[in-house]
Amino acid sequence: MRQFEFTAPDTVEAALATPGTFLAGGTTLVDLMKLNVLTPQHVLDINELPLRGIDTSDGLRIGALERMSDIAAHPGVYPVISRALLMSASQQLRNMASIGGNLLQRTRCGYFRDVAMPCNKRVPGSGCPAISGANRMHAVLGTSDSCVATHASDVAVALVALDAEIRLAGSEGARTVRLADFYRLPGDTPDVENDLRPGELITEVVVPRLDWAERSTYVKVRDRQSYEFALTSAAVALDIQDSQIADARVAVGGVATVPWRLSSVEAALRGKPATVQTFEEAAEVAVEGVKPLSGNSFKPSLLKRTIVRALIEGSR
């Protein structure tokens, strides 16, 4: 880890006025600093900023500095969000990690985290060895010739499914961005991962009121039961009336370069009976456009099974 300056502003205005890299829980930033993947000259500890609080009176509003474990345990938080949080990392990390930091976490691609290897996310134009190398954990959706790294966040998948927005503060004022629009596909610029502008700060996560999201769940398939990233995952919410699916929300993780909303699967579910056959037929649509790599050709079929399992659980 290289030397850096450290300050702790106590107002949002002071934080925005000081150039540097923001530190909340530190569960991603500190790791990458130790590996010299990130080498900020100035680190700003923002934990004293007034960016906390959870309000469930009309939808869901979460301060960006709220810890993952506190959100998961809070009454009134939609089940799909709680489950996604509880399946993330370890209890110790969840006690430290902030919701804002989780949404901004970097990929766990081994090539990105190894400074001895080329990586277009870390050094634009250097190449993507994962395309022909060790790629079992990598993406099959939303990829490009420049990058096949998966997005790491579990809760981002749940939030994208529920049409969440994030509030941002910056030197040019505040703005609100739909989370699904916030993340960028890699294309030719995989180093540009999201729509966060220089010096901007996430201040709040807002989930619109969706009463039927009480019938929701998150299923995560991984190599071991805890402290492991997803091979595939699915966040679903179902509005079932008289055994018919009136509406649905479906997003998946572990298979794409961004949290991946499956509007086509949602459309295939609406108006259909809530049966296993319906779920299986809808899941077939999920793999349209997949591009498996040499080491992850199992992911499309695993993704379909994960979606079906989540829909079965979510329909109960």
TrEMBL record:
Documented EC number(s): 1.17.1.4
Enzyme superclass (EC): oxidoreductase
Domain FAD-binding PCMH-type: 1-212
Keyword match Oxidoreductase: yes
SMART domains in the record: CO_deh_flav_C
Database matches in SUPFAM superfamilies: CO dehydrogenase flavoprotein C-terminal domain-like, FAD-binding/transporter-associated domain-like
Presence of keyword Oxidoreductase: yes
A Pfam family recorded for this sequence: FAD_binding_5
Alphabetical UniProt keywords: Oxidoreductase
InterPro entries to which the protein is assigned, alphabetical: CO_DH_flav_C, CO_DH_flav_C_dom_sf, Diverse_Substr_Oxidored, FAD-bd_PCMH, FAD-bd_PCMH-like_sf, FAD-bd_PCMH_sub1, FAD-bd_PCMH_sub2, Mopterin_DH_FAD-bd
Gene Ontology terms, MF aspect: xanthine dehydrogenase activity
Name of the protein this chain belongs to: Xanthine dehydrogenase YagS FAD-binding subunit
